[in-house]
Design goal:
Blueprint lengths: L9 E4 L8 H9 L2 E4 L3 E5 L2 H5 L10 E4 L2 H13 L9 E4 L2 H7 L9 E4 L8 H6 L6 E6 L4 H9 L4 E11 L12 E4 L2 H10 L9 E5 L1 H9 L6 E3 L7 H12 L3
Parallel strand pairs: 1-2, 1-9, 4-5, 4-7, 5-6, 7-8, 9-10, 10-11
Antiparallel strand pairs: 3-8
Helix pairs in contact: 7-8
């Protein structure tokens, strides 16, 4: 077991660099070098591969969107296939942010759009109202949309899940190593990407900051130690978890 609370000078966060973030305040307060690098990225399914499903998007009267990526790749494939969705098509979006993003792709006032708060159950009233008259399409990634699939199956909707994009490991070959004081991960796929790029990775003195139960499981399955965990009662966010750790490691 590595020594606890060694001083921290460098942190690598396995996500794209945002325009604004509490991490910037953290770097300034503790005089840290914080680098950003996405370990995973999204790739669209090609038109040729999609056609193997033997379906066309315009065969469906209602579309369920679970993310902005699902919107982007749905309309990308429609364009590549020269498919024009009917003005009567209904769209069901899991969140308001997804619904707002949909406005980039359709004339909003002419379509029927239903928006939930966070989960598929939030759309239960709207979905069941149209259950017997609609044929539903669920665009998803290689990871699927299990909660939505389970809901639609349970309530016996006429639906089809279809993969339109993939989440895959990014190429990190330009990084000479990942010997930062702290590596921050938010998904099991980030851990997979770490080993895809650095198959001989050894934790040594590197501390791992991990967000979420599924990511934690991926870490422990690899025999690695979790040094900083979020969310928790004391640290509901990753920045707060790092802050609490730095108070011990970088005492001023």
């Amino acid at each position: 077991m590595k020594e606890e609370f060694e001083p921290v000078k460098t942190i690598l966060i396995s996500q794209p660099k945002p325009e604004r973030s509490a991490y910037f305040d953290l770097a300034k307060k503790w005089d840290l070098q914080i680098d950003w690098r996405p370990f995973i990225h999204v790739e669209g399914v090609s038109e040729k591969e999609f056609r193997k499903n033997r379906l066309r998007p315009d065969e469906y009267t209602s579309i369920i969107f679970t993310s902005k990526n699902s919107i982007e790749h749905f309309f990308r494939l429609c364009e590549e296939m020269r498919v024009s969705m009917s003005q009567a098509t209904k769209y069901f979006c899991l969140t308001k942010a997804i619904g707002d993003y949909l406005q980039k792709f359709i004339v909003y006032r002419k379509r029927k759009v239903f928006v939930g708060l966070r989960k598929i159950d939030d759309l239960h009233t709207s979905l069941t109202k149209h259950k017997d008259s609609e044929k539903f399409l669920l665009p998803c990634s290689n990871l699927g949309a299990k909660d939505v699939d389970n809901y639609l199956e349970k309530h016996e909707f006429d639906f089809k899940s279809v993969m339109m994009y993939r989440t895959v490991s990014s190429d990190l070959s330009d990084l000479s190593d990942v010997t930062y004081d702290i590596l921050v991960f938010f998904s099991p796929l980030g851990i997979q990407s770490l080993y895809d790029n650095f198959p001989d990775f050894k934790q040594n003195l590197t501390r791992l900051a991990i967000y979420g139960k599924s990511t934690s499981k991926a870490v422990t399955d690899r025999g690695l130690d979790i040094n900083i965990a979020a969310p928790s009662a004391e640290s509901p966010s990753m920045t707060m978890a790092l802050e609490n750790y730095l108070k011990k490691s970088n005492k001023k």
